[in-house]
Structure prediction request, 420 residues.
Amino acid sequence: MPAVRDLRVLLRFRDFRRLLSVRLLSQGADGVYQVALAAYVVFSPEKQASAAAIASAMAVLLLPYSLVGPFAGVLLDRWRRRQVFVYGNLLRALLAAATAVLVAGRAPDWLFYASALCVTAVNRFVLAGLSAALPRVVDTARLVVANSLSPTAGTLAATAGGGLALLVRLAVSDSDAPVVLLGAALYLCASLASLSMAPGLLGPDPGHALPHLGTALVGTARELSAAVRHLAAPPRREAVWALAAMTLMRFCYGALLVMLLMLCRYAFSSGPQEGLRLLGLALGVSGAGFFAAAVVTPAAAGRFGPGTWISVCAGTAAVLEPALGLPFATGPMLAAAFVLGLVTQGAKIATDTIVQSAVDDGFRGRIFSVYDVLFNVAFVGAAGAAALVLPPDGRSTVLVVTIAVVYGAVAAAMARFERG
Prediction:
């Protein structure tokens, strides 16, 4: 099996193995924590969740820390990335433990969201750092394969963490606090795993000329402008198109996720517990799609090119998303979860590869932070758009058809760019 063979080759790199372990633990904890938040906001028996409430929660958790993104990039191009993983995950462990205390004490919602916001704000540094550090632990010839397997393994770890969180939540149905504590424990393990790498291993290079930190923080807009100009230079036009395409696909994914949450909570279940079980099954099927993307993307991107593969992924979603979504039935919905997991992760692998290959190391931190901001704004915008059109039970033909049109536009635009 090519994916297994490629993984064996990559695992011969000691530093890749260590960075991968940090990713798996960190993103596994993310999966646990995200399911804990979803259970608290959407599936708590005492709460009557609506699409607007879900969108509001996403806005509270995602939009404010999008403002941290630019600063994360500036700092990631100065701080040792290994230290970011050590202290960032340690801080998240402490903050997650504090969130568990708030949940157990039934604190006001605003206090819960403030604590959760701090956890997700630190997440920007860790995830952007993981992407920026990957070229430091594998050679250029294996970067495409590493981009296929490493982020996908992280996504699978997040899915597995979410599944574990659901099991804990179903076993302890009277509180979400134990689930949040499980996430805190995994964050702590990720911090400890980061200590196995040398402090200077993951960059950035100390010889890279950078202004004083205080000047850089004050001039964040100028720093980002320089990174965007670097990205927009003619040799990197494909990276710009790939980022735009992936941002729109993220919008589609966000809208469909809100619809899935509402369907699981109301249309396809008789109560919160049954809805949680169905959501867990959908996440597992979607995780299988992520794995399938890791298997097929290296060969597909190698044959067609990463940009064309993004177009193929978007085109596949444009056809299958309405075919599977419009029946509004459990079986087709699970099939759609697999397809969307495959095409979304396949396009992301290709996008990461294009951006990493095109961008100089001294700009990677800032550009991946811009990448994250685009993703988060698109995701929250999608949640808001979904809240406007979704009925109380989550069934919306208008939303399904609109998302299919967006996927089709992405596929056509990327295909036209690649031909030109």
In short: Residues 2-204+216-419 form a domain with the Growth Hormone; Chain: A; fold (CATH 1.20.1250.20). DSSP finds 16 helices and no strands in the chain. The mean pLDDT is 85. The radius of gyration is 20 Å.
